[in-house]
Amino acid sequence: MSQQNAKYGSMTMKESLSLALTGLSLPLYTLLNLPKILLKPSRQGVLRDIVLLLVKFLTRRTSTSQMQVILGNTISTYQKWSKRHGFPILEEELVDGGNLFWLGPKQTNKVIVYVHGGGFYFPVQDCGLNFCHYVRQTLVKSGVNDVGLALLNYSLMPEASFPIQLRQLAVAVDRLLASGVAPRNLYLIGDSAGANTIIQLISNLLHPNDDLAPTVNLKEAIGGIYLMSPLVKFESTKPSFVNPHAWDIFDRKTVTGWSTGYAARAPDSLRSYFEPSSVPNGWFADLSRVCSRVLVSAGSDELFRDDIVEFFETHLQPTKADTRLEIQDGSVHDDPLYDCFFSASPSKVGALTPIIVDWFKAALEQR
């Protein structure tokens, strides 16, 4: 089945059988690799290392369709998560097929919008929702109240490629601004491909292209964006990316396949809008006009590390915006999300998560 004609989670008979075999082999794979985990120095605990091992196993051994079947969809994940936490189901339908899902009560004084990752193929996961909820709850405990938290439900590959995700985010931002949210009180969190989508929005705000997304009229800069392990380069040759001994949640062949599949239907003339590292010098020179603060983070052990650092130092740091880069030692792609893999109220978090919370606290208290 060609990617153009494929449907989300549509598997062939061969893929169905293969997925069953993969499931049967998972316990044996875990058992065989357990000694390696037990002997490896762990900063976050053995249980977490086992989770990361299983994530890497599944990303290597399954197709995108198989993973979509395993992971389900964003709507059901959101609804189950909300019911589990005793929150109302608050869904706002947007034009162009997107949705805003509110995590908890709808509050529009100050709003954080989460744009989840997943290589443009996969839905939001509980750990992403848990992480955002943890950030908000920690902010509340520190005295920062009245912060609304919303999730962007955007369309996924193989049915939706660039620039659909950009368009849906632009529509969501426009909806929030039209509802009375001041730009300075709007914040965006994105991990991986979600962070890429946020950068797409920033690019289109700075260099408007109405063929890609509707114009978002900003009367002032938005409050800030947090880019967690952003996807900035689709095919890399950097040392961190080609390192055969890298301890990350996926390998370079897998992630390159996701990225190039997403970009395959977009003309190269638009590459600056969807591959951030390819932009010409000065592309983000006026960043402070549309965004006041930017926090970027990466894991020291993740494949994207070198490309993220280069992107930040070349394109974001030289601007007048308040920019900050954090590299978490001994961590992988999207590492803060795994702090909340089992719970939205973890007893222990990594070194980066408190930095993220403090960054939001400082930004929100200035408003």
TrEMBL record:
Keyword vocabulary terms for this entry: Hydrolase
Keyword Cell inner membrane: no
Transmembrane segments: none
Residue ranges of every copy of the Alpha/beta hydrolase fold-3 domain listed in the record: 112-333
Pfam families: Abhydrolase_3 (PF07859)
GO molecular function, one term: hydrolase activity
Family annotation (InterPro entries): AB_hydrolase_3 (IPR013094), AB_hydrolase_fold (IPR029058), GDXG_lipolytic_enzyme (IPR050300)
Isomerase listed as a keyword: no
Protein name in UniProt: Alpha/beta hydrolase fold protein
Record organism: Coprinopsis cinerea (strain Okayama-7 / 130 / ATCC MYA-4618 / FGSC 9003) (Inky cap fungus)
Lineage: Eukaryota, Fungi, Dikarya, Basidiomycota, Agaricomycotina
